[in-house]
Design brief:
The chain has 144 residues and is mostly helical. Helices cover 89% and strands 0% of the residues. The chain has four helices and no strands. Helix 3 crosses helix 4.
Length: 144
Amino acid sequence: MDTLIQQWLPVSISVIIAITAVLLINRERHARKALEIKFSAIEKVLKNARLQHESLTKQFNELRTGSIGMSDKLMDVIEQIERIEERQNEIAMNDSGGRLYSRASKMVELGADVNELMKECDLPKAEAELLLSLQKSMPQHYRR
């Protein structure tokens, strides 16, 4: 029996080793397939992330370009407003008498007399009387 065990022991060990090797190789194949599937999924996610990154980069560049354009236009509008304000101030400085006459005309429409016009609008008596007579001689539909 000892000889029988000695004869079959190397064969048995070889068979056990072969079976173990086949099982390990099979297990390795399954693990490799699982890793390949995971790797493929990660590649898809990475590809989608790159595409999304490119899209967002394009959108950002478009927004940045639009923002710069709007900023330039806004600066132009601000400059125009500043020029208009300067011009209005110049006109206001040069037209102080015109405003007084407009105010006096409005007061005449509301029924003011010569003394009120002289006092409130700082007009000489002759101008106040002239304004009153002009206002009264004008037809109703031409008055403001």
